[in-house]
Write a structure and sequence with these properties.
Distance between the termini: 27 Å
Low-confidence stretches: none
Shape: globular
Order of helices and strands: HHHHH
Number of helices: 5
Number of strands: 0
Largest sheet: none
Radius of gyration: 14 Å
Strand content: under 5%
Number of domains: 1
Helix content: over 70%
Length: 91
């Protein structure tokens, strides 16, 4: 989780927008709470974390449209996973 946090901070910093960086940091803190609540019920934690690679590649390449698309997919996949975990509590 520490590596995930540092990675997210680096991506946020790459926006060069301190207001967006601060806002995204606040959203990350909220998402982190969800991680800790649902982590044991999420199906593919490694896949979700591993999904950062393509996003980082797009950011480093300066490909804003691809980075935007991948970031949206990343957030939406996390949302779907948490909703699925919430709808299917452990027995």
């Amino acid at each position: 989780m520490a590596l995930d946090g540092r990675l997210h901070q680096a991506v946020y910093r790459s926006t060069r927008n301190p207001y967006l960086e601060a806002t995204l940091g606040q959203y990350y803190n909220l998402a982190l709470r969800l991680w800790y609540v649902f982590m044991d019920r999420l199906d593919d934690v490694a896949g979700h974390v591993g999904g950062h690679a393509a996003l980082v590649d797009a950011v480093l390449a300066g490909d804003a449209p691809e980075a935007s698309r991948l970031a949206s997919e990343h957030v939406e996949a996390f949302e779907r996973a948490v909703l699925e975990a919430e709808l299917n509590p452990p027995a």
